[in-house]
Each structure stands twice: as structure tokens, then as C-alpha cells.
Design goal:
4 helices, Biotin_lipoyl, Glycine cleavage system H protein, single chain, alpha+beta, 9 strands, 2-oxoA_DH_lipoyl-BS, GCV_H/Fam206
């Protein structure tokens, strides 16, 4: 269910690392918990974030929740499509990235969950 090429946080974000950059989004679990997403607050390009630091918010009909960076780095691109179509995060959350960052410390990814670990974490929380 969760793509194996992604790494995950306990706060329900995902990260795809490739060539010193990282795409970051929210997991399908997070999207389902939020319900219909109506707004995404995006950071400015050039902003630096530490791992576990909030970089924006996702607003749904149920709640507003912060989104945290799984890894340290500098924002190089934001997904402008989410300004017009925030519901893309509900439709295909693992393909709808929120920000792209230039990774400051790739070793931080070693502490993130694999797909199998993340699925076990979710099941544990539902028990």
C-alpha cells in the first residue's frame, strides 16, 4: 500500500530522496484522517528547515494540521498546483508532493521509517 521507495515519519509525512534533493508530502493515512483537503499553506522558496520543523499547514473540512519536514534542507520548489487543487492530496497523496528541498544532511534519512515499518506503526496505532 505504501510505496517502498519512500521513507516515512511518525507524523505521517513521506520523503523521496534523489540526487541530493527530496520531495516531501503527506501519506495516504494522513489524507484519509484529514478528510477533504481545502487549502495548503506553502513556504517560500529559499526558506531553510531543520528536520521535524513545521514548514506549512494542510487545512481540511475537519481540521488544520501542521506539516513537518522529515529532513533538513532548503526549499527549492513548491507545488503551485496545490494552491489551485489542494484536493490532489486526497486523490493521490503519494504522487502529490508539497515541497522540494535541497538536502542538508542525507544521513538524517537513516532515521526515517521504511514502508514496512510505517505500515506496522499505523496498525499499532489502530489497535
Amino acid at each position: 500500500m505504501y510505496p517502498k521507495e519512500l521513507r516515512y515519519t511518525r507524523d505521517h509525512e513521506w520523503v523521496l530522496l534523489k540526487d541530493g534533493t527530496a520531495l516531501i508530502g503527506i501519506t495516504e493515512f494522513a489524507a484519509k484522517q484529514l478528510g477533504d483537503i481545502v487549502f495548503v499553506e506553502l513556504p517560500e522558496v529559499g526558506k531553510k528547515f531543520d528536520a521535524a520543523e513545521a514548514f506549512g499547514t494542510v487545512e481540511s473540512v475537519k481540521a488544520v494540521t501542521e506539516v513537518f519536514s522529515p529532513i533538513s534542507g532548503t526549499v527549492t520548489e513548491i507545488n503551485q498546483d496545490l494552491s489551485e487543487d489542494p484536493e490532489d492530496l486526497n486523490t493521490d497523496p503519494h504522487a502529490s508532493w508539497i515541497i522540494k528541498i535541497k538536502v542538508a544532511n542525507p544521513k538524517e534519512a537513516d532515521s526515517l521509517l521504511t514502508a514496512e515499518q510505517y505500515e506496522a506503526y499505523i496498525k499499532e496505532g489502530e489497535a
